[in-house]
């Protein structure tokens, strides 16, 4: 035994049949710090294994080496502790086995080794893994939290690009701006992919479970992807099996996102032929259904090896594909993770050169509450996306006269015939009297006196004459629960206030099938009052976002002037009305006044007033008289009313350069020159600089010109800002010569 163990790196010791040490090899002596003579004939357990590092006593009966002696069994211990001669603890791994001779247990043997180095390496590895995981989580958290910060400047770029394209441009400039706008949209898509992927990694991607219409999701896909397919000469087919119910519960936006990812890829990789989206039923119970979504193309296809690389983040199946077709390599990875989060799974079938089919299953709940609600018309392919709305008939149910004016003005622009009633009871009476000749669609406000939009919709749906009448909710409340309540009341869709003109037209097109096309040719562009246009555009606004307000009325200056005038008439005493309602504890009435103010403030672009009205509306819901500070809202409303009054009374001014003499002092020359340097470089830091200068100009003759320059910089009109600053510098130098 000596010859066998003397050269081993593992420590070995043996016990005789009485449990005393009978043998110790050199490696054991080195590991434990004892020489063999100090151990032979003694109880090994009491010397090296009597307690743990925390002082816990280990009885001899629990020692595997002695158990092996007593029971004749072998034991493997992955991590235990032996005691060194100097009292330090040694981490060990050991095996214990009985020594058997002539069918009797003659003793036991232990083979052990010091695992200190291994444990230290494992500790470092674990620490590194934790650090890497924390770093990865920090990165994901950072990107997930940066969503708003990244999207905000992108939205500004897209918004300014869109506004620029609405102006008169020569062909070359339009081409440049259009390319910039398209590139910005592509960049936003990439940013959204990265942010979604990071949110999924960080566990911050929230899923909804709300009532929705499958037909609306598919119509949205058609509208979104038709242009892409048309540009490549492809046929886009969308087929929903007739056995698939339309009213479901789930997350329509994420389902749409996956379909868009898959279909965009299909269009991207297909040069001719067709791309098809199909939806079929797999199985159905009383309250749940599993659907199979398939996206098929006749494109380049994939080999078996390429398919193995799919669904991996930041991966294209072939580097040449990324160079030729572009993309982040995130779309399929995001799609797979979204589908799995929704409880489904995704598969792919593909053949190189013949095309691919991506399929995913999703379990969804049936929306039992949606019986009798109209399914919107759906065209499989080739639908006229921008068909005229001229001749369509709409009933607008809205109590606020500003909102009436805006909605009617926007609908007049596209030739829609509008009738207006002020509350739910009037709407029911109007429709009952015209049951044989109903309008094409109802735009229904939610919070109204006499009867609100929810109750009116419920009563209309209870009458079979109105089962197929589209009812669209229009409200300043745009949260998930508001959409759920609208759907539960029998409404088909939802438009958030302030209303975006294109969104309004889009929703009406979705539900209005047949209109009088002969009337579209008769539409004339509204004639704008040039004096009103110049007066409002040149006014230096501080309480409302003029461009945003103008956008809400389709860019019509004269209509905007009428809306502003109506705002003063209708809203000047709103705070008094809220105070009276609170005093009388007429809480629903107070909430309605605040809600109405919030909506019209958003319509005219009075963003601060809109937010304060929203805060008061939320506080009113709690019905606590003491916790409703109306003074800030009152001040904000008063400021808006005063400024609108001043704007409507102001005379026409030159939009480019102020012509009155501001009597600029010499002290302004240096800061103005610094500002001019930034403007000449098209540096957006000029806006920060002028915001620093303005407090010093408060109450002086130069305040108005500086306000004008700030407005020009906010609109990225650096040329006009340059002219204004140069003129101010010239005035300062002239006055102080």
User: What do we call the CATH topology of the largest domain?
Assistant: Heat Shock Protein 90
Mean pLDDT: 80
The total number of structural domains is 6
| Percent range for β-strand residues | 15-25%
Q: Which CATH architecture of the largest domain?
A: 2-Layer Sandwich
Structural class: alpha/beta
Low-confidence stretches: 314-328, 371-386, 514-532, 651-662
CATH class of the largest domain: Alpha Beta
Helix content: 40-55%
Per-chain topology:
Layout: H1 2-5, E1 11-16, E2 21-24, H2 26-32, H3 36-39, H4 44-48, H5 64-71, E3 75-83, E4 89-101, E5 104-114, H6 116-145, H7 147-165, H8 171-202, E6 210-213, H9 214-231, E7 235-240, E8 247-250, H10 252-268, E9 274-284, E10 288-297, H11 304-308, H12 319-325, H13 331-341, E11 345-351, E12 355-366, E13 393-397, H14 401-413, E14 417-421, H15 424-433, E15 441-445, H16 453-461, E16 471-475, H17 480-488, E17 493-496, H18 501-511, H19 530-538, H20 546-552, H21 557-571, H22 574-583, H23 587-604, H24 607-621, H25 631-649, H26 669-680, H27 685-697, H28 703-714, H29 718-735
Helix pairs in contact: 6-8, 7-8, 8-13, 9-10, 10-13, 14-21, 15-16, 21-25, 22-23, 23-24, 24-25, 26-27, 26-29, 27-28, 28-29
Quickly describe the structure.
With 737 residues, the chain is an alpha/beta fold.
Could you please describe the fold and organization of this structure?
- With 737 residues, the protein is α/β, with parallel strands linked by helices.
- It is 50% helix and 16% strand.
- A hairpin with a 2-residue loop joins β4 and β5.
- The longest helix is centred in the first third of the chain and has 32 residues.
- The chain is elongated, with a radius of gyration of 38 Å.
- About 8% of the residues have low confidence.
């Amino acid at each position: 035994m000596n010859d066998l163990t003397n050269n081993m790196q593992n420590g070995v010791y043996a016990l005789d049949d009485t449990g005393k040490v009978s043998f110790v090899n050199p490696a054991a002596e080195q590991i434990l710090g004892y020489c063999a003579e100090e151990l032979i004939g003694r109880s090994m357990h009491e010397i090296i294994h009597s307690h743990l590092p925390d002082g816990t006593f280990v009885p001899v009966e629990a020692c595997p080496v002695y158990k092996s002696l007593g029971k004749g069994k072998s034991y493997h211990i992955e991590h235990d502790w032996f005691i060194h001669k100097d009292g330090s603890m040694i981490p060990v791994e050991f095996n214990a086995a009985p020594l058997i001779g002539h069918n009797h247990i003659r003793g036991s043997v232990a083979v052990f080794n010091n695992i200190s180095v291994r444990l230290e390496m494992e500790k470092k590895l674990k620490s590194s893994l934790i650090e890497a995981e924390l770093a990865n989580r920090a990165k994901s958290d950072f990107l997930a939290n940066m969503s708003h910060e990244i999207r905000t400047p992108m939205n500004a770029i897209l918004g300014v690009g869109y506004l620029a394209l609405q102006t008169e441009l020569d062909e070359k400039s339009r081409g440049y701006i259009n390319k910039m706008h398209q590139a910005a949209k592509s960049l936003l898509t990439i940013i959204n992919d990265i942010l979604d992927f990071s949110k999924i990694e960080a566990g911050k991607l929230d899923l909804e479970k709300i009532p929705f219409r499958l037909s609306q999701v598919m119509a949205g896909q058609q509208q979104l992807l038709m242009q892409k397919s048309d540009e490549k000469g492809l046929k886009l087919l969308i087929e929903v099996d007739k056995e698939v119910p339309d009213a479901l519960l789930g997350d329509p936006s994420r389902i749409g996102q996956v379909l868009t990812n898959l279909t965009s890829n299909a269009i991207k990789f297909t040069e001719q032929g067709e791309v098809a989206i199909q939806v079929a039923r797999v199985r159905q119970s009383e309250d749940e259904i599993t659907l199979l979504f398939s996206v098929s193309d006749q494109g380049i296809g994939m080999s078996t090896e390429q398919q193995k690389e799919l669904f991996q983040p930041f991966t294209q199946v072939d580097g040449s594909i990324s160079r030729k077709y572009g993309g982040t390599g995130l779309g399929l990875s995001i799609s797979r993770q979204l589908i799995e989060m929704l409880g489904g799974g995704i598969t792919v079938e593909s053949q190189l050169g013949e095309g691919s089919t991506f399929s995913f299953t999703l379990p969804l709940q049936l929306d039992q509450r949606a019986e009798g609600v109209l399914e919107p018309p759906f065209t499989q392919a080739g639908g006229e996306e921008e068909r005229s709305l001229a001749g369509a008939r709409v009933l607008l149910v809205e109590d606020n006269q500003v909102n009436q004016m805006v909605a009617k003005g926007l609908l007049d622009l596209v030739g829609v015939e509008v009738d207006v009633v002020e509350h739910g009871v009037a709407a029911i009476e109007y429709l009952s009297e015209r049951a044989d000749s109903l309008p094409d669609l109802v735009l229904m406000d939610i919070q109204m006196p006499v009867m609100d939009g929810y109750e009116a919709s419920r009563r209309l749906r209870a009458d079979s004459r109105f089962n197929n009448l589209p009812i669209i909710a229009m409200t300043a409340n745009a949260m998930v629960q508001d959409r759920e309540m609208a759907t539960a009341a029998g409404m088909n869709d939802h438009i958030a206030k302030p209303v975006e003109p294109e969104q309004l037209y889009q929703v009406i097109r979705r539900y209005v099938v047949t209109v009088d096309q002969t009337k579209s040719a008769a539409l004339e562009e509204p004639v704008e009052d040039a004096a009103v246009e110049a007066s409002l555009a040149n006014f230096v606004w501080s309480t409302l976002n003029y461009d945003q307000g103008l956008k809400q009325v389709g860019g019509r200056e004269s209509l905007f002037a009428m809306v502003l005038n109506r705002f003063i008439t209708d809203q000047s005493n709103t705070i008094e009305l809220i105070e009276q309602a609170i005093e009388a504890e007429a809480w629903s009435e107070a909430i309605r006044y605040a809600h109405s103010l919030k909506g019209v403030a958003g319509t005219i672009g009075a963003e601060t007033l809109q937010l304060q009205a929203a805060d008061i509306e939320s506080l009113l819901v709690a019905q606590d008289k003491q916790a409703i500070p109306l003074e800030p809202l009152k001040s904000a409303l008063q400021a808006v009313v005063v400024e609108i009054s001043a704007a409507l009374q102001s005379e026409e001014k030159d939009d480019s350069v102020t012509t009155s003499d501001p009597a600029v002092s010499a002290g302004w020359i240096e800061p103005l020159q610094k500002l001019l340097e930034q403007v000449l470089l098209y540096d957006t830091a000029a806006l920060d600089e002028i915001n620093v200068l303005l407090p010093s100009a408060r109450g002086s003759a130069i305040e108005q010109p500086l306000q004008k320059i700030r407005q020009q910089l906010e609109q990225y009109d650096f040329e006009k800002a340059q002219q204004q600053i140069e003129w101010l510098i010239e005035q300062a130098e002239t006055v102080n010569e």
